[in-house]
Amino acid sequence: MKPINEFDSESQSELEALENFKNLITNIKLLKDKNWGCPWQKIQSHESLIPFLTEESYEFINAIYDKDTNNICEELGDILMQIMLHAEIASDEKEFELKDIINKLNMKITTRHPYIFKKKEKVSLKKSQEIWASIKNLEKANYAK
């Protein structure tokens, strides 16, 4: 993987994505702002947003089946908006923050793929699935304790 400061088109795209993500965070906070935000957005809860996450997920799935890449992109944005809204609700309720979601996801990715992030070795598809399932089962067993 190249350092992000190398100025090729891939790095520029990643930098643009990071900037756009920062703008998204700001926009979601503005939507939910107690004084100036959207009245409808301000009253939403995890529970009230369930039907919208379900609907957006089905629309995304349909876009995949339709092989409509423009719609796939749009529906992924709608799902990301749902994630961002839930993160902001949780932050407002002092439950967790967006950084916690990202941290947990990064931990899950690196933990469940030790052959990439620790050992730096190539494995077969079958072996990768075995490792992933084994680690996931271990995590579930530890979580149940």
Description:
Helices cover 74% and strands 0% of the residues. The chain has helices spanning 9-32, 39-42, 50-65, 69-92, 98-112, 114-117, 125-144. It is globular. α3 packs antiparallel against α4.
Q: Quote the beta fraction.
A: under 5%
Structural class: mainly alpha
Instruction: Give the count of helical stretches.
Output: 7
Give the quaternary arrangement of the chains.
single chain
Radius of gyration, in angstroms, nearest whole number: 19 Å
Helical content stands at over 70%
What gross morphology would you assign?
globular
In total, the number of strands is: 0
| Element-by-element helix/strand order | HHHHHHH
For the report, how would you describe the main beta sheet?
none
pLDDT averaged over residues: 93
Please report the distance between the alpha carbons of the first and last residues: 38 Å
Q: Residue ranges: pLDDT <50 for 5 or more in a row?
A: none
